[in-house]
Write a structure and sequence with these properties.
By secondary structure, the protein is mainly α. The chain has one domain. It has helices at residues 3-17, 20-39, 41-55, 61-70. The longest helix is centred in the middle third of the chain and has 20 residues, at 20-39. The N and C termini lie far apart (65 Å).
């Protein structure tokens, strides 16, 4: 048997075994999670930037000027 035939038989077995309500519930959950991520993206971006600044703080203006003068 070829690989595609095996994959088709496995996929058809699992698709018919899963009740439609479970598939619909999973689709709704994925949609709600995606919607929340899109809705809160500015907040999540701000949290990410704050975390980056705690790990690697910005240099002061004097430090940046000194670095430019060294080059």
């Amino acid at each position: 048997m070829s690989l595609t035939a095996n994959l088709y038989s496995v996929a058809s077995t699992y698709l018919t075994a899963a009740p439609l309500a479970d598939v619909a519930r999973s689709a709704v959950q994925v949609g709600v999670a995606g919607g929340l991520i899109v809705f809160f993206r500015p907040l999540l971006t701000g949290i990410g930037r704050a975390l980056v600044l705690t790990v690697r703080p910005r240099r002061t203006r004097a430090q940046r000027a000194a670095r430019i003068e060294q080059q």
